[in-house]
Design brief:
Elements lengths: L1 E6 L7 H11 L3 E5 L10 H5 L4 E5 L7 E5 L4 E5 L12 E6 L2 E7 L10 H20 L6 E6 L23 H11 L4 E2 H5 L24 E5 L1 H4 L2 E6 L15 E5 L4
Helix pairs in contact: 3-4
Length: 258
């Protein structure tokens, strides 16, 4: 199963690029973030015409996540458990085949001296609790993909000093990310690649032409899914096109169970 994650930065504004990518790469599952639309306005017809089933958790103007799957989806969960007052659409989860798959849009957290940073850290705690209390005990293999808004290490950013106090790179953020991984998860791309690789380039200051990027789009796999990991790559192609998202897709391949 080829699973891709792609922060599209508005599915409506980016629809031609998204459809082009789906046609060219044809992932079995596509996890989308920042769809920036309510469920009713999601361009379902165009995507269904390409052979995908769709599950969305949308929100007007901001956030929003979706799962596209060539196979049927079951037991869709919309919203991250742990805070019933949280109205931001940042998490969706479904069963596809024998895998439990989630699309994640973790909060950015900037500026760090506002309420946004404590919200980010609390959201990460909720994600860790969900994995620990709800996903791992079931022993169903799972893949958590998306825009984590976390730069894991110096190697994953073009200028670590410039980003030292950013919410994506602060020590508290990276510690929460490590705590999540230390539950026994595997960060798929880093498990297979020793060098740098970026998945996001800001629109400003010519970051893309100079390859001044960040790696913030990740797949986290439970042990039973990690045992089946065959590949994980960053697809830089879409970022270089006209009217591109500031993110580019990342994909992983999960083999059949033995």
């Amino acid at each position: 199963m080829k699973i891709a994650t792609f922060n599209v930065n508005s599915v409506k504004a980016r629809l031609p690029r998204v459809l082009e990518w789906l046609k060219e790469e044809a992932p079995d599952v596509a996890l989308l973030q920042e769809i920036k639309t309510v469920d009713e306005a999601f361009p379902a017809m165009e995507i269904e015409d390409m052979g995908y089933n769709i599950a969305t958790h949308g929100q007007k103007t901001y956030n929003g996540v979706a799962i596209l799957s060539k196979s049927p989806m079951e037991d869709v969960l919309r919203g991250l458990p742990g805070d019933e007052a949280d109205e931001q659409a940042r998490y969706i989860e479904a069963t596809i085949g024998d895998l439990r798959v989630a699309s994640i849009y973790l909060p950015n957290g900037n500026p760090v001296d506002s309420e946004k940073y404590p919200y980010k850290l609390a959201w990460m705690d909720r994600l860790t609790a969900h994995v620990r209390d709800n996903l791992l005990p079931v022993e169903q293999p799972f893949v958590l993909g998306g825009d984590y808004n976390v730069i894991p290490a110096d190697l994953d950013v073009y200028d670590p000093k410039a980003w030292a106090n950013d919410a994506l790179f602060r020590p508290e953020t990276r510690a929460k990310f490590r705590a999540l991984i230390h539950l026994g998860l595997t960060e798929a791309w880093r498990a297979l690649h020793a060098g740098p690789g970026y998945s996001f380039w800001d629109y400003q200051a010519g970051r893309w032409p100079r390859d001044e990027g960040l790696r913030i789009d990740h797949f986290l796999l439970c042990p039973r899914a990690a045992d089946r990991l065959q590949a994980c790559e960053i697809d830089r192609g879409p970022r270089g096109k006209e009217k591109a998202s500031d993110h580019t897709p990342v994909w992983c391949e999960i083999g059949e169970p033995e």
